[in-house]
Amino acid sequence: MSKDPQNHAELLSEFPKNTAAEWRQAAEKLLKGAPFDKVMTKQTPEGIRLQPIFNRDVIEGLPATNTKPGFDGFLRGTQAAGYRAKPWEIAQEMPYGTPEEFNQAALADLMSGQTSLNILLDVATLSGLNPDAALVGQVSGCGLSLETLKDMQTAFKGIVPDAVSFHFRTGLAGIAIGGLFFTWLDYEGIDMKTVKGSLGMDPLAVLAASGKLPCAISALYDEQVILAKCCAAAAPGIVANGVSTMPYHQAGASSVQELGIGLATGDAYLSAMIDRGISVDDAAKQIRFTFSVGSNFFMEIAKLRAARVLWAKVVESFGGDAEAQKINVHARTGFYNKTEKDPFVNMLRTTTESLSAVIAGVDSLCVGNFDEVFRLPSEFSRRISRNTQIILQEECELTGVVDPAGGSWAVEWLTNQVAEKSWAFFQEIEGQGGIEAALQNEFIQKAIAKTASSNEHLLNQRRAGLEPHDNLARPPQAVSPGDLD
Fold it and tell me: What is the SS3 assignment for 297?
């Protein structure tokens, strides 16, 4: 085919240029009297009405038209080169209870393409309990049991600390696990400044999931600050605190609600650290976000892209500089839509969810194992999940594209819609007095319950195609006023 622009113009001139109005007229003719808006458009749980086709004019005036990757609020990514400079971390979870089992799985998976350790902890470890004093089910249940330095040495035997990232989900036990981890690094003679990862101390996620805390939230904020200062001084590659929206997504929250809650939680942690003497620039760098990724392919892309813009806006409002405004995002395929009855279907669902996350531009990703809702993962299920990411990197070549969704009329429009509605929900939470008060007065629980009920209604009518797993979908727990004192 000729590359002459004139020839291309002549070719295009042979085809009539139809307007949106003409397309709709033709569509209505085919519908034979059925209402266009009812048949051809779709209302999402986020309150956004999706059209069947989008034209260039929908992005006129949107910020996306004047943004570049690595700049301009980070809509198109926090790095100008995107994954071309650094691929996302393959951060698969390994929910094995004993240090020996964990080590065996970790070494096998790291040798097979995994690039980051995503470490779940058991109830006893998270609660600071001696295994001998813990209740039945609290030790080694879907998480690693760590009590002593020897446990840490066994779990990470043969692993080079400065060659992989270590991500812990510590909940309330950030200082205890952080201290044990740093002690192990020192014992191994590792320069802590060369180690990367996160400790994920996130008391508000624990509060939402369980409905209570063992002490006042202010005391846990104090611990977050101690941990943040320690990481900043001794291990700048380690992020102290986390914001996880997984409890809310798992309860049935919409993407708008999940993002709004995440912003409110991050805002609370920023305020707490700043009030306790940490600069906004340093405080923002001590927060890592974890978002669940659901089955609505384009909505999840829009949610994660909007998260970058809105978090930059939050940090900027505190006076943070451009570097501090960059969000650190880990994504994890969701639990809400996974089935035990036909678990191989979960492979399809996690594949689309992981593709959403990658196209949106996450920093690390965990693809859930297809059998995780009813058993510990087998070597085969771990391989499938891990290889899903490797295929996206190596065979789909998504590491060779900067912001693959950038410029899509539908995605840019949807991203802007999600950003506007998420910011509005965030402001509603702030109007309640912040995330703590909104949990205490059950504003968040009621909002999510309404969305979940509506989704359940659609499922029962067969107007939606995914079945939630009944044992996993549950609302954030009611919060006692004493838990926030």
Answer: helix
Tokens of 412: 């840019």
Query: How far apart (Å, rounded) are the C-alpha atoms in residues 56 and 54?
Result: 7
Please name every residue paired with 242 in a beta bridge, in sequence order, or none if there are none. Answer: 288
Whole-angstrom distance, CA of residue 247 vs CA of residue 203: 12
Query: What tokens appear for 88 in the block?
Result: 């996302």
Helix (H) or strand (E) holding 196: strand 196-201
For β-strands 165-168 and 287-293, DSSP reports them as unpaired
Q: What is the dihedral of CA 214, 215, 217, 221, to 10 degrees?
A: -100
Q: How many residues would you count in the chain? A: 485
Q: Among candidates 207, 199, 204, which has minimal Cα distance to 228? A: 199
Using the predicted structure, report yes or no on whether residue 477 has a pLDDT greater than 90: no
Cβ atoms of 461 and 422 within 8 Å: the answer is no
Does position 438 have pLDDT exceeding 80, yes or no?
A: yes
Mean pLDDT of the chain: 91
Is a pLDDT exceeding 50 seen at residue 108? yes
Query: Among residues 155, 43, 44, which one has the least CA distance to residue 94?
Result: 155
Q: What are the phi and psi torsion angles at 90 (to 5°)?
A: -85, 100
For residue 299, the model assigns a pLDDT of 97
* 3 state SS of 171: strand
Does residue 283 register a pLDDT over 90?
yes
Mean pLDDT of 180-204: 97
Say how many Å lie between the first and final Cα of the chain, rounded: 72
- State yes or no: pLDDT of 475 exceeds 60: no
Q: Where are the alpha helices (DSSP H) in 318-442?
A: 345-360, 379-394, 409-431, 435-440
93: tokens are 């979870």
CA distance 137 to 290: 26
For residue 24, pLDDT beyond 80: yes
Beta carbons of 474 and 210 less than 8 angstroms apart = no
In the numeric block, which tokens belong to residue 352? 């689309």
Please enumerate in sequence order all residues whose Cβ is within 8 A of that of 71, keeping only pairs 6 or more positions apart, or say none. Answer: 80
- Distance from C-alpha of 169 to C-alpha of 171, rounded to nearest angstrom: 6
* CA-based nearest residue to 374, from 349, 343, 337: 343
Q: Are 402 and 131 in contact (CB under 8 A)?
A: no
Which DSSP category does 228 fall into? H
Q: Report the C-alpha gap between 200 and 148 in whole angstroms.
A: 20
**pTM beyond 0.90:** yes
pLDDT at residue 131 in the model: 84
pLDDT at 139: 87
Q: Of the ranges 11-20, 75-84, 112-121, which one carries the lowest mean pLDDT score?
A: 11-20
